[in-house]
Amino acid sequence: MSGKKIICRCNDVTVEGVERLIDSGITDIEEIKRLLRIGMGPCQGRTCIPIVISILARKTGKRQEDIPLPKSRVPIMPVRVEVLVGGADE
Amino acid sequence: MSKIAIIGGGIIGVATAYELAKLGEEVILFEKNYFGSGSTFRCATGIRAQFTDEANIRLMKYAIERWERLEEELGAEIGFRHSGYLFLATSEEEVEAFKNNIKLQNSFGVPTRLIDMDEAKEIVPPLNTEPFLAGAWNPMDGKANPFKTLFAYLTKAKEMGVDAREHTEVVALEREGDKIIAVKFRSNGKVESVKVDALLNAANAWAPLINEMAGLSRELVPITAYKHQLVKTEPLKPGQVEPLVCPPSWNDSYLIQDGEDGGIICGSGIEHKAKSLDDYEPTYDFLRGVLKYAVQIIPAIRHAHIVRQWAGFYAKTPDKNPAIGRLLDNFYIAAGFSGHGFMMAPAVAQAMAEFMTKGKSKVPLDWEWYDPYRFERGELRSSAFQIG
Ligand SMILES: Cc1cc2nc3c(=O)[nH]c(=O)nc-3n(C[C@H](O)[C@H](O)[C@H](O)COP(=O)(O)OP(=O)(O)OC[C@H]3O[C@@H](n4cnc5c(N)ncnc54)[C@H](O)[C@@H]3O)c2cc1C
Ligand code: FES
């Protein structure tokens, strides 16, 4: 994988950025998520989380199945506020 | 040099570990999950000196002075800025109350002022000014990034020799007379023990369980875990809702723009008693409730998308003031922050570290006000004004 490859489109995170963080000793997926904001964009990490897990597995020697998926947050798809509050009155 | 153990890897435990290391102490820090996994990573990022009692105002004025210099001290970006807090009044009585609070805050050097709605609109361009009569505005209040702040403290603490252990749960304490002499902890299924000279309970919502391990009653410091939730919108242009905006009479509902990605964080005083100490499930009634207020404060939010909702704990005491002080000879507590632990951390951590090692501190922290034994004596403080 090339160093400048973007793996999180929502938050512009590169492979290099993830690798640098892991090299600095941060290997907990929940911590990586919050420091780089992977998985915190509107898509909730659908594309980036699996890639980060594979990098993490490769660098730490853990099996991918042993790395827990970070919790995704409701709503699963972005919802417009007006749908939730109803009506057009202010 | 003595060995000091800290239970709880939230902002309070981590910042205190750093402050103790700065004083040359040997520190071991235990976090049962990952660092920040308790309340800290769920907070709304707000930092304010606009309280309604002397103790909290003076403590927070000092804390904000530390926040200003923290980035330089820790050598890492933490995203602190003076983005202000804007409280909005909906009645004449509230305007009077604001005036009294402002007078008290001013007397301790906090520069809050009463502003009209034209000025409020300049500060928060999309604000719906119609329901409001006046604002209490302190431009020195602010916000910071909880993730970056915790890691900045943690990285520095580790550099200074703190033995920081995550995924390591404290399971028992060994007590001799009025002293804690050892801490038992479990990590990777293995239980080990370490001898300690002093211990700090910084476990916030879980603090009563730690007190129980020390042979004290859970009720001595009665902390209840209330589920407090937040909802976040997609990013809006920066500068739209820079300060925290809150009409307290609307169920303490508030809005603040995330300093990093520009999404609007919406909170409200709608609370649920947590079913257990792992009950982080967000609720639909909160989502609808909070948005009902949010669109009245900033009508444009109606057209934004909600991208995320989450829950955390307001570790509440009966008077909504934290318990900070000594419980036994060498056993201390700083917990029960009732929604203010992030903003208070730089001041409380320094005060606690100095208190534990020297018996006193130069931080203007009123030990009597926060005394952990006040509940047992039935001596509650005036309720701290709650809001992120
Ligand atoms: C939705 C929400 C919004 C908020 N908004 C704001 C805000 O705007 N401004 C503000 O100042 N505050 C805010 N707060 C409050 C703030 O988040 C907390 O007061 C603060 O994070 C408390 O930090 P702490 O270190 O005391 O506790 P925590 O971060 O909860 O840390 C305690 C840690 O102890 C660990 N632990 C517990 N038991 C054990 C054990 N046996 N062994 C090892 N570790 C253990 C836990 O895993 C946890 O990580 C908010 C809170 C919530 C929930
Ligand atoms: S690609 Fe990472 S959160 Fe969307």
TrEMBL record, chain A:
Gene Ontology molecular function, alphabetical: oxidoreductase activity
One Pfam family here: SO_alpha_A3
Keyword Cell membrane: no
Domain SoxA A3: 3-85
InterPro entries found in the cross-reference section: BFD-like_2Fe2S-bd_dom_sf, Metab_Enz_Cyan_OpOx_G3PDH, SoxA_A3
This protein's UniProt keywords: Oxidoreductase
Gene3D superfamilies for the chain: BFD-like [2Fe-2S]-binding domain (1.10.10.1100)
Database matches in PANTHER family: ANAEROBIC GLYCEROL-3-PHOSPHATE DEHYDROGENASE SUBUNIT B
The name this protein goes by in its record: SoxA A3 domain-containing protein
TrEMBL record, chain B:
Chain coiled-coil ranges: none
InterPro entries: FAD-dep_OxRdtase (IPR006076), FAD/NAD-bd_sf (IPR036188)
Keyword match Oxidoreductase: yes
Top-rank taxon, per record: Archaea
UniProt GO MF annotations: oxidoreductase activity
Keywords annotated in UniProt: Oxidoreductase
Pfam families reported for this sequence: DAO (PF01266)
Organism: Thermococcus onnurineus (strain NA1)
Protein name: Sarcosine oxidase, beta subunit (SoxB)
One GO cellular component, as annotated: cytoplasm
Residue intervals of the FAD dependent oxidoreductase domain: 3-354
